[in-house]
Inverse folding.
């Protein structure tokens, strides 16, 4: 996938993760996209460890894996933000 595809998947995954996660994360569009992209990379890396193959296409599996990764990243972001206060 190209960089534009990863940005699109990251945006979708970040928005889905914010929708699924309860609470107010106070993250704007760019932070949401960034967390989604990081989550997608994290999810793809985890899937490559588990299944032996990464995520390479733009399909529902890619979005689900990226969303799960984005949820993990959003949880960590919330914990870091909470501890910083």
């Amino acid at each position: 996938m190209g960089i534009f595809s990863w940005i699109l998947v990251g945006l979708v995954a970040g928005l889905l993760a914010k929708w699924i996660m309860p609470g107010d994360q106070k993250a704007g569009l760019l932070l949401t996209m960034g967390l989604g992209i990081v989550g997608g990379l994290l999810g793809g890396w985890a899937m490559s460890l588990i299944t032996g193959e990464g995520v390479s296409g733009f399909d529902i599996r890619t979005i689900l894996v990226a969303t799960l990764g984005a949820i993990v990243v959003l949880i960590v972001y919330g914990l870091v933000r909470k501890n910083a206060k």
User: Anything to note?
Assistant: The radius of gyration is 13 Å. Residues 3-84 form one domain. The chain has a mean pLDDT of 77.
